[in-house]
Structure formats: structure tokens, C-alpha cells
Amino acid sequence: MKPVVRPSTTRRYATTAYAVAHMRQVTPGPQIVEYLHKIDETLEPFGGRFVVHGGEVEVVENTWPGHLVMIEFPDMQQARAWYRSRAYQEILPLRTENSQSDVVLVDGVAHPHKATDVLE
Q1: Residue ranges with strand state E in the chain
Q2: Which of 21, 49, 82, 83 makes the best surface tag, with the fewest CB within 10 Å?
């Protein structure tokens, strides 16, 4: 019988959480430039900081069209509060109307963490 891998309801999460964006296509222009100039000030009140921002991607399996952006927050509550904040919602259309992307908020894991911690 194969083990079932799924998020455990008892898994311990670290205090950190991440906003992760797969930017598949971006249309460069003044609106994206404005977004980039304004996003940092939206992160600051929520303790957000970039940990990955469109660096070179070395594809080792399958394909990866686009770029990766990861923003770290102290916890999921702060990540959610940033995304829902008035300041971020005001600039969000600058990105969404000029790119194709997927964005998720995800909890980090408590350390130490082993791969088998996800098994029930």
C-alpha cells in the first residue's frame, strides 16, 4: 500500500509565510515600472521582504516559462493582511493588467523538518 501524501492537520508551521508568484509573462511598460516603485512601501508595514525576485532560473526538470518571485512575511496573518491591504489593492491592477501570473500564500515549515513529516 502506497502512503498518502497530504498536508497534515498536525504539522507544525514556522512563523514565516511566503507570497509566491509565478510570473509567466510580463508586458514591460510604465504601469509595471510604477508597480515596482510602489510595492516596497506596501510590504514594509507587514514585515514583508523579497527573498527571490526574478533571478535566473536553471530548469533541471520539465519547463519553467517565466520568473519566480517570493516574498517572506513573519507569519500567514501578515501575508494575508498585506495582500488585502488598501495600499496593495490599489497597485495590484498595475500588475494584473500587464502580466499573466499565479500567486499563492503559503506557510513555511517549522525546523527541523523532514520530508516524512507530511505523511500521516
Answers
A1: 17-26, 49-53, 67-73, 99-107
A2: 49
